[in-house]
Amino acid sequence: MSKDLSYKEKSLVKSRWQAVLRSVSVVSLAISIFFVAQVLGILTLSSILELLGINREKLSTMLSTNIFIQFLSISFIEYFIIVLLFLWYLYHKKPFLKSVKIDKKPKLMDVLIAVITYGLYFITFVAVVFVISQFTRGFNTNQTQQLGFTSPSNTGYILVFVSLVILPAITEEILFRGFLFQRLSKIINTKVAAIITSLLFGAAHLELLSGGPINYVAATDTFILSLFLIYLLYKSNSLWPSIFLHAIKNTIAFVVLFII
């Protein structure tokens, strides 16, 4: 009897370690896709511009001053994230759109649910930030995200809107919720998968490589947002409500930062 129990315990430990290793593998893959896409995006853009006679030093300047070049860099990065994910699913012979839950057409109800959920998210965010700021020194609630764009004008507003609202809402949802969360939730507990995904999403907005102070308020914001995005995906079995919520949140941020 004791031997049987010991065998079961060993099997349980083994299965748990396998789950941990598989989870680490999924997380590592998502992080790799995120960073590799950035490298491929910038390399592609720099190669095209070099063919046009623009050297890398001038490119570096243009990335911080030229809205069109900034738009192209973000577009290439987002493009390669989708391509790398598509190739991964293709290699594993799985349908891409169905696997990331965007195979069905979006509905008006998806938009309405996203609008309502935005209100709940915003209330939660304000409450959490208020509590943290009361007990944590150095938590700058007024710190804004460094979005990488100078003040736009005329058609520049359209390029900034596409770069900050449309592209991230689609690409980040496919990578973090459509791929990472769904893969993790098949390996480990759904709630744990949601927390891990949200922590990584928040960490991606800390702005560690920006040269400025760590943006804890942006990371807190995106962590909370991610939990609501995952909830919508979990309840609707579709990524569209999450995409719409993400787009609504970014649209409001766009209006506040560039219009008002």
Structure notes:
The mean pLDDT is 89. The protein has nine helices and no strands. The longest helix has 50 residues. The protein has one domain. The protein is mainly alpha-helical and 260 residues long.
Descriptive keywords:
single chain, 260 residues, mainly alpha, 9 helices, 78% helix, 0% strand, globular
What's this model, at a glance?
This protein is mostly helical and 260 residues long. Helices cover 78% and strands 0% of the residues.
Class by SSE composition: mainly alpha
> What's the β-strand tally?
0
How much β-strand is present in the residues?
A: under 5%
User: What is the helix/strand order?
Assistant: HHHHHHHHH
Oligomer: single chain
The chain-level mean pLDDT equals 89
Shape: globular
Tell me the domain tally.
1
Straight-line distance between termini: 72 Å
State the helix count. Answer: 9
**Share in helix:** over 70%
| Unreliable sequence segments | none
How large is the radius of gyration?
21 Å
- Biggest beta-sheet profile: none
Strand and helix layout:
Elements: H1 2-51, H2 56-65, H3 67-91, H4 96-99, H5 108-135, H6 156-185, H7 190-203, H8 216-236, H9 240-259
